[in-house]
């Protein structure tokens, strides 16, 4: 433990998975429920932990045993424990409901983790299809075209447009193949880097919300996360303006983050959340605005938010299940066009030669 400072630096060199944080939260809640103290509960998890999580728990124990709070120990690792997580722990420490807050956190984290898995699983199918199309095109360019193109060039016939286009592309790749490959790798790497930068996200996030089918998925995912996080914080006794602030800090979509940021000062001036939502009907459907307004009037806002989060969770689940069914016809058409175009370009001149010979 004397090497605490060194280990603190090492923690940021390697990551801790979302599953590890989820299991830590769930098992710690179970340990506290069984009657162990916080230090004892963490020590039990430390004995079973491996890799980077073990280092994190060791440093936490040093902080807690020195008299600091659990939330203070967690705040040293914002990369792994979100503002929502830390604030709920802090609230639990103050109100004496740490065990309940940990249990509640583990349930909500499990739902968000499942949501993330569903989105990734649904996007896997189209990604594999596009990889297959790319591999097909590369295979044809590398193995097929170099053997057939010389034959076509030697023929004294009027070649179809598709074959001429194929010969042209083959010539370009033959002369500049290495340059094109390197340029493609550099371009893709740059685009991936660019899309991860904070300064570009407000633009890309707004563009995504303009694409018809993708827009529906993004809105449903963000509304599910917003309502679930906001409702969970209110349910645990955190004031509305503070809950909104924490929810905003945990929101990754820049468009929704900007709207939530506008809600906070308006709320402090005496306005309502539903009024801000109503001014953005394209991102907050009318039914959600009315239900939130009803919750504000009746005082059961947290219940309404929980209901809405469950509704959008089902909406996302249903959309993800049907995604492959919706995309399959379009992907099959793309594959058909690519394969058919290549086949037509290669077989067209062959049939033309055969017809001339018969004539």
What's this, in brief?
This protein is mainly α and 359 residues long.
3D architecture notes:
With 359 residues, the protein is mainly α. It has 2 domains: 4-81, no CATH class; 103-359, Receptor-associated Protein. Helix content is 82%, strand content 0%. It is built from 15 helices and no strands. Helix 2 packs across helix 3 (38-48). The protein is elongated.
Helix content: over 70%
Number of E strands: 0
CATH structural architecture of the largest domain: Up-down Bundle
Biggest sheet: strands, sense, closure? none
Radius of gyration, CA atoms, in whole angstroms: 28 Å
Number of helices: 15
Low-pLDDT segments, ≥5 res: 1-14
CATH homolog superfamily of the largest domain: Type II secretion system (T2SS), domain F
N-to-C SSE series? Answer: HHHHHHHHHHHHHHH
Q: Predict the CATH topology of the largest domain.
A: Receptor-associated Protein
Distance between the termini: 91 Å
The geometry reads as elongated
Overall CATH class of the largest domain: Mainly Alpha
Identify the notable features of this structure and list them briefly.
359 residues; mainly alpha; Receptor-associated Protein; 2 domains; 15 helices; 82% helix; 0% strand; disordered N terminus
Give a topology summary.
Elements: H1 4-11, H2 18-33, H3 38-48, H4 51-65, H5 70-74, H6 83-95, H7 98-154, H8 161-195, H9 201-208, H10 212-235, H11 240-249, H12 254-268, H13 273-278, H14 286-298, H15 301-358
């Amino acid at each position: 433990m004397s090497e605490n400072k060194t280990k603190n630096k090492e923690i940021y060199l390697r990551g801790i998975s979302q599953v590890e944080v989820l299991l830590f939260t769930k098992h710690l809640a179970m340990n506290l429920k069984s009657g162990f103290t916080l230090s004892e509960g963490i020590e039990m998890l430390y004995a079973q932990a491996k890799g980077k999580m073990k280092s994190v728990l060791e440093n936490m124990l040093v902080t807690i045993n020195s008299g600091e709070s659990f939330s203070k120990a967690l705040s040293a690792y914002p990369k792994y424990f979100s503002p929502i997580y830390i604030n709920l722990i802090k609230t639990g420490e103050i109100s004496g409901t740490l065990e309940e807050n940990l249990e509640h956190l583990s349930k909500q984290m499990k739902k968000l983790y499942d949501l993330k898995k569903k989105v990734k699983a649904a996007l896997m199918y189209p990604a594999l299809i596009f990889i297959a199309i790319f591999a097909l095109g590369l295979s044809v360019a590398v193995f097929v075209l170099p053997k057939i193109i010389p034959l076509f060039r030697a023929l004294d016939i009027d070649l179809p447009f598709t074959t001429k286009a194929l010969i042209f592309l083959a010539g370009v790749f033959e002369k500049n193949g290495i340059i094109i490959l390197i340029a493609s790798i550099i371009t893709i790497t740059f685009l991936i880097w660019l899309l991860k930068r904070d300064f570009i996200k407000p633009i890309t996030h707004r563009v995504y919300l303009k694409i018809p089918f993708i827009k529906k998925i993004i809105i449903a995912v963000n509304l599910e996360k917003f309502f679930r996080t906001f409702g969970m914080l209110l349910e645990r006794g955190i004031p509305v303006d503070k809950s909104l602030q924490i929810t905003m800090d945990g929101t990754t979509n820049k468009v929704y983050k900007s709207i939530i940021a506008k809600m906070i000062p308006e709320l402090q001036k005496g306005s309502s959340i539903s009024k801000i939502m109503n001014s953005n009907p394209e991102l907050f459907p009318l039914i959600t605005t009315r239900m939130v307004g009803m919750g504000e009037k009746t005082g059961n806002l947290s219940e309404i938010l929980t209901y809405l989060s469950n509704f959008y969770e089902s909406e996302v689940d249903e959309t993800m299940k049907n995604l492959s069914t919706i995309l399959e016809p379009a992907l099959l058409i793309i594959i058909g066009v690519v394969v058919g175009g290549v086949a037509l370009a290669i077989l067209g001149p062959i049939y033309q030669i055969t017809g001339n010979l018969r004539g």
